Amino acid sequence: MAKGEVRARMVTTAVRLLAEKGPTGASFGDVLEAAGAPRGSTYHHFPAGKREMYDAALDLASQRADAALEGVRGQPADVVVETFFGMWRSLLTHTELRAGCAVLAVAVAGDDAANVEHAGEIFAAWRGRLESLLVEGGLDVGRARTVAAVSISAAEGAVALARAEQSLDAFELVAAELVELARRAG
């Protein structure tokens, strides 16, 4: 593997392991083993240690979420919310309910304050992005702010329920309710 490829593989693997097992299942050793990367890769690619690897993983997870919402600019608010929940539905079905949100995993179980703070910054950015999309979709700023925060909170909880119950039933109920909320708010 080329130098950049090893780092990219480690970051992608860290996202997956954080989403599936949380920080306790995403140590350097876990990431190296799952990525098939040589032992010397750890501090070569992440000289600041695990914090640096987790920050890179959180950034990649955030970029993936942003990319999933890219096509909804200017769409009605309910389409924005449905797309947001669709992103999570896709993750759940693709991983057979094994993966959740890597950002949430670090926010609730991370042991490094800087990583937890970084997760908080990502959540704030997601709220801002959703708010902006919802305003463009016809909601006033105050309502968009509320719908964005409720959508993220509800989606994260619905993902946790789906994983714990090994069923999309509760997730689909929450998604339908939030899409209807966005429809009525517009």
Automatic annotation (TrEMBL):
DNA-binding region per UniProt: 27-46
Keyword Protease (UniProt): no
Keywords: DNA-binding, Transcription, Transcription regulation
Domain HTH tetR-type: 4-64
Classification via InterPro entries: Homeodomain-like_sf, HTH_TetR, Tet_transcr_reg_TetR-rel_C_sf, YxaF_TetR_C
Highest taxon in the source lineage: Bacteria
Protein name per UniProt: TetR/AcrR family transcriptional regulator
Annotated source species: Nocardioides mangrovi
